[in-house]
Design a protein that fits this description.
Shape: globular
Order of helices and strands: EHEEEHEEE
Strand content: 35-45%
Largest sheet: 7 strands, mixed
Number of strands: 7
Structural class: alpha+beta
Number of helices: 2
Length: 110
């Protein structure tokens, strides 16, 4: 069952294997995105987060995909995850995916 990122358990985070960014709505001023997390080898997402990007008409703005990547980094980082490879774009240019892994805990110096 898919749930919000904030409801993920530690066990689910440890078994995460892939993340996907999907651009779902595009207008002149706003883009809506979904961030989906899949277990390693899983076909159904275990978590989803939806967000919107606005003010896309600024002078020299970063690409909306770069802005979405920044949101993804923050959300994944809050759950102790990070991308382990560059984004791969789907043929329809509306979905990007990458592998993820838990961030290793720092070594203890006792």
């Amino acid at each position: 069952m898919t749930k919000p990122f904030g409801s993920l358990t530690d066990d689910e985070v440890q078994h995460a294997g892939r993340v996907e960014l999907r651009r779902v709505v595009v207008t002149d001023d706003v883009e809506s995105w979904d961030l989906l997390l899949y277990a390693a080898g899983g076909l159904e997402p275990i978590a989803v987060d939806a967000f919107s990007l606005d003010e896309l008409r600024r002078v020299n703005p970063p690409s909306s995909r770069d802005l979405a990547d920044g949101v993804a980094k923050v959300v994944l980082g809050c759950h102790g995850l990070r991308r382990t490879e560059p984004w791969t774009m789907a043929r329809d240019a509306s979905t990007w995916s990458a592998r993820v892994a838990p961030v290793p805990a720092p070594a203890s110096t006792a």
